[in-house]
Amino acid sequence: MELVTFEALLKSRLEQAGAEVRTFQEAGVGFLYGILVRTRGSAATVRLTKGSGTGDPVATEAEQAAHAVNVARLDAVKGAPSATHGVDGARPVEDLMRDVLAADLPPTAVEVEGPADGRTKPGVKIRFRSGSEIYMTPVDIRR
């Protein structure tokens, strides 16, 4: 699954669960993919990154176009911010992301893993049949 598609899916599911969500594009954050989430008295900035996977289907034309728009947005940003992983207080957001994905796995997903499952690294990981993985990692972003 392409990050542009996954970001939209995750945003929609979190909003359905009552969270307030903005994408990095909407908020003008200088990274390609991620979301800002506020829920249950907690807030976190979550960066989305994609791991390896050789069997992923080719991105659709719509996905390629949306990605190109996002890349062009970054080209206009002067100086990328830095990000520190492992943010204190992000656990409620991590748990909500894990729960909304585990309740109804996205197409071709086979597993989702978060802190509630014993994941020791920060954030949530989802694995797909192709072997690819998407990581949702809370970060502290600084300019």
Radius of gyration based on Cα positions: 15 Å
Q: For the report, how would you describe the main beta sheet?
A: 7 strands, antiparallel
Poorly predicted runs:
none
Order of helices and strands: HEHEEHEHEEE
Characteristic terms for this protein:
143 residues; alpha+beta; 7 strands; 30% strand; globular
Structure explained in plain terms:
This protein has about 140 residues and is of the alpha+beta class. It has helices spanning about 5-15, 25, 60-75, 90-105, and strands at about 20-25, 35-40, 40-50, 80-85, 110-115, 125-130, 135-140. The chain is about 30% helix and about 30% strand. Strands 1, 2, 3, 4, 5, 6 and 7 form a 7-stranded antiparallel beta sheet that branches. The N and C termini lie far apart (about 30 Å).
Short description:
Helix content is 32%, strand content 30%. With 143 residues, the chain is an alpha+beta fold.
Topology summary:
Layout: H1 3-16, E1 20-23, H2 24-27, E2 34-39, E3 42-50, H3 61-75, E4 82-85, H4 91-103, E5 109-113, E6 124-128, E7 133-142
Antiparallel strand pairs: 1-2, 2-3, 3-7, 4-7, 5-6, 6-7
